[in-house]
Amino acid sequence: MNNSLIKKAFALSLITIFYNFAEGLISIYFGAGDETLALFGFGVDSFVEVISGIGITHMILRMKYAKVNSRDSFERTALKVTGTAFYLLTAGLIVGSVLIIINNVKPETTIPGIVIASISIVTMYWLMNSKLKVGKGLKSDAIIADANCTKTCFYLSFILLASSGLYELFGIAYFDVLGSLGIAYFAFREGKESFEKAKSENLSCSCEHS
Q1: Nearest to 61 by CA among 50, 72, 51
Q2: What's residue 204's pLDDT?
Q3: Domain tally for the chain?
Q4: How many Å apart are CA 78 and CA 68, to the nearest integer?
Q5: Would residue 210 count as lying in a domain?
Q6: Is residue 206 part of a domain?
Q7: Residue among 29, 38, 139 at smallest CA distance from 94
Q8: What are the residue ranges of helices labelled H in 36-172?
Q9: Can you give the pTM of this predicted structure?
Q10: Is the distance from CB of 53 to CB of 142 less than 8 angstroms?
Q11: Which of 35, 68, 109, 111 has the most CB atoms within 10 Å of its CB?
Q12: pLDDT digits (tens, 9 = 90+) for 5-40
């Protein structure tokens, strides 16, 4: 096993965790303050990705000592917690969207969402390609699968950018609601996939949305 590539994979996993934590914190702060559900949901999604990232980091640490052919109990538990959190996020965003429509709530501004989404698009694109390169170098199905799943965060960033940008241009609250429901859709798929991975012995379990 190539130790330098394992170290790089470990570094990328840590960057993913710390970036998602910071992104989640900032997104929730501005999402709650500006009453934009799409940005708030994006932030919660980032925090859930931290849990998933911890499971991947644990797997990479195991790779330092032996070839990893299956998930251990820690990784399976992390996937189940991640899946549950994604399902809760899905339900919360759907309920939140309904309440926004009923109460006719409009965000004060979506400029923070535009900025955060733009930064995330660049960051996720770099992480996605870096992980893919390392995964192929190590011939690791798990890291390649993780790289492919990073596409989800990439797509979510575009959804946030579109909904935030359109709201800022036209001031129509439904754009924020549509962004929230778009994030809910991907959160549901991520939750479903997390539980499938927890049950599967196949480390190359591909993302349905990749």
Answers
A1: 72
A2: 60
A3: 1
A4: 17
A5: no
A6: no
A7: 38
A8: 37-63, 73-103, 111-138, 141-170
A9: 0.92
A10: no
A11: 68
A12: 999 999 999 999 999 999 999 999 999 999 999 999
d(CA 41, CA 26): 12
At position 21, the amino acid (one-letter code) is F
Q: Give the HSE-up count for residue 96: Cα atoms under 13 Å, Cβ half-sphere.
A: 25
Would you state the structure tokens that stand for residue 79, as one six-digit string?
A: 């996937």
Low-confidence ranges of the chain (pLDDT < 70): 1, 204-210
**How confident is the model over 196-207, as pLDDT tens digits?**
999 987 776 544
**CA distance to 87, 94, 164, 182, 202, per residue, from 185 (Å):** 10, 9, 17, 5, 25
User: What Rg do the C-alpha atoms of the chain give, in angstroms?
Assistant: 17
What domain range includes position 94?
3-199
CATH of the domain at 69: 1.20.1510
Spatial CA neighbour of 39 closest among 124, 119, 120, 112: 112
Q: Is residue 175 part of a domain?
A: yes
Answer yes or no: is 143 within a domain: yes
- CA–CA dist 143, 139 (Å, integer): 9
Tell me if residue 171 falls in helix, strand or coil.
coil
